[in-house]
Write a structure and sequence with these properties.
It is built from nine helices and eight strands. The chain is of the alpha+beta class and about 280 residues long. α3 packs parallel to α5 and α4 runs antiparallel to α5.
């Protein structure tokens, strides 16, 4: 879609470009990419008010649905449009020599996109009795992640990070993450590899260097929360965030336990509603 919009902008076909960006935004209403595209298109046409309203509407929607803020990159674009730093050339197209609206130093800084996702963190406990068992568990985990639309983004030491909904917004990403975690628990027991799991749903920042777009890393509050929940979970326990609980309570059975420190109770997965056991 990015390439399609660029072609329309180069052809000065702004009507079709705006229509395509609006359709994209309707498909992924919490993804920043179509919002940024619309803001730039409106600004290119000199419609600063429309560009600013697009940002303000998106920011309100993020706050209401995810209790989150737009990324610094999108906020900087808004500030540039508001202050006139986002310029257009005489033909009405974007001025590529205008000041870059981004934090950091030139192209050395990685670009970051923010969109909703669900993060699953597995904190491995102990070591399997044999190297073959460890290999068997990780092989099973890769297959499970792939089957449920997830992607293993990071493996370091005794932790594994899996992201669901990274490439595009998927409304069922929280449920897919829970199903994957339950299947991973079965694989862990079969391979004698114990683990504790944390699942969190929210915004993540996907960053990539200019030389390798689309690779890079993920970060954000959802990632930190998933690590925190995994650290607090007991062996073979799958603890979820409040956002994940709200998104999956119609299809997942949960139990709660107190942390003992006056904090809200942990919600951990018991089973799926469609599981007869």
């Amino acid at each position: 879609m990015d390439a399609h919009l660029r072609c329309l902008r180069l052809a000065n076909d702004y009507e079709r470009a705006v229509e395509a960006a609006l359709n994209w935004a309707r498909f992924d209403p919490l993804d920043e990419k179509p919002q940024r595209a619309l803001m730039e298109l409106f600004a290119d046409r000199g419609e600063r008010g429309a560009a600013m309203r697009q940002y303000e509407t998106f920011r309100a929607q993020l706050e209401q649905e995810l209790d989150a803020e737009p990324s610094h990159r999108l906020s900087d674009l808004y500030d540039g449009i508001r202050t006139g730093r986002w310029a257009t050339n005489d033909s009405g197209g974007p001025n590529r020599e205008a000041p870059k609206i981004a934090r950091g130093v030139g192209s050395l800084v990685s670009a970051a996109d923010r969109h909703p996702a669900t993060v699953l963190v597995l904190r491995l406990i102990g070591t399997p009795r044999a190297e073959d068992a460890a290999t068997g568990f990780m092989s099973a985990l890769y297959g499970i992640a792939l089957r449920y639309g997830g992607r293993i983004e990071h493996q370091s030491g005794m932790s594994v990070l899996v992201v669901f909904g990274r490439s595009a917004t998927r409304e069922n990403a929280p449920e897919l993450a829970v199903r994957a975690a339950l299947e991973a628990k079965t694989a862990g027991r079969r391979n004698r590899q114990s683990f504790a799991a944390g699942i969190s749903s929210g915004l993540i920042d996907v960053s990539s260097g200019p030389e390798q777009p689309g690779s890079g890393s993920v970060a954000g509050r959802a990632v930190h929360e998933a690590y925190r929940l995994a650290a607090q979970a007991a062996p073979y326990e799958i603890v979820v965030s409040e956002a994940t609980f709200r998104a999956t309570r119609a299809s997942v059975r949960y139990a709660a336990r107190r942390s003992g420190r006056g904090d809200p109770p942990f919600r951990h997965v018991r089973s799926l509603h469609d599981d007869p056991r």
